């Protein structure tokens, strides 16, 4: 007689969650890490989940208010990222091997140009990484677009300009994970923050804002060496205000209006500011006092209030064709080839621009005393027209077979081939969480600079 698989449970002070199993790992989705979120306010501490335990954590939790991803041309459509909610999207998902105890923790921050994406998407399912890295994987939601990264010069509710509300959400989530690490099956002293694109940028922010909680970091295809200045942010705020409906303010606009304001601001941005953030109007911002040049172009300097000068190992990566998809976006936005070619060499519409941003940031971290290794993703799936495109690293690490089915950037590569290559990467990430630097992986990842500190 067949026996049923016991339901995995996650017991926390705030409540007990009933999860599921697949890919050899347990999963718990939509677990709150903060109380109800109020617009343009820091997240509040959650003491008790008001739902009766055990709470069903098998389905995707709510996702932040956001427009569709601009990267669907390469990633495909996101079919199942959960219902959108402004107030209740401060959730995360946990993936772990059965019987997990004191394992390394991966803290995943998704990309999406600070305006789209969700940890609840099956693109970011962490089960395969949890299984092959023998680690706990936590994927985190954070507020997006104007609701998460609109610059506000009024600091009554925003502790420091560097801490946008989207960033504050991540800080709260990281603190929650550290506080509940043992219950999650992990080690609070061994948290690896990792993220891709905007998520990599936000990992760099956490290295500054909460270094005492991050043991290591992996920053993939990030623009972390390029920051918006206060002047940029104020200009974009003024531009966005022109798209508010009559009588509405940023505080009173509906979620649907917030998405429309973002889309209209992004559409107006190329003419407003060609050399920075094409179609990406909302960014984390550092104040002029944080460094030379008012923050742009600049590196990620220490922000007043960072409580620990801890220097940690950082693995920085970019893809060989990171810039190609953004060049396509620039063309779709109406820029001619001549206008695109006239952009500065460091503009993020070119492959050299993306490479330069990653190399620049790796060298900066090394100068600051971090041990840093730099690598380039070179995997070009069979039959793909996109090559080693922006986000090509994600299916090697995260996501389900169903989520990635029919993804344009994977071309004709079979899932078995994708998963086999990815297993080597996932095992390398697990080794890095235990102190072993990743080595080159033939046809997938080339390590360009070995780990050294200045």
From TrEMBL:
<feature type="region of interest" description="Disordered">
    <location>
        <begin position="43"/>
        <end position="87"/>
    </location>
</feature>
<protein>
    <submittedName>
        <fullName>Carboxylesterase</fullName>
    </submittedName>
</protein>
<feature type="domain" description="Carboxylesterase type B">
    <location>
        <begin position="10"/>
        <end position="233"/>
    </location>
</feature>
<feature type="compositionally biased region" description="Basic and acidic residues">
    <location>
        <begin position="77"/>
        <end position="87"/>
    </location>
</feature>
<dbReference type="InterPro" id="IPR002018">
    <property type="entry name" value="CarbesteraseB"/>
</dbReference>
<dbReference type="Pfam" id="PF00135">
    <property type="entry name" value="COesterase"/>
</dbReference>
<dbReference type="InterPro" id="IPR029058">
    <property type="entry name" value="AB_hydrolase_fold"/>
</dbReference>
<feature type="region of interest" description="Disordered">
    <location>
        <begin position="288"/>
        <end position="308"/>
    </location>
</feature>
<dbReference type="InterPro" id="IPR050309">
    <property type="entry name" value="Type-B_Carboxylest/Lipase"/>
</dbReference>
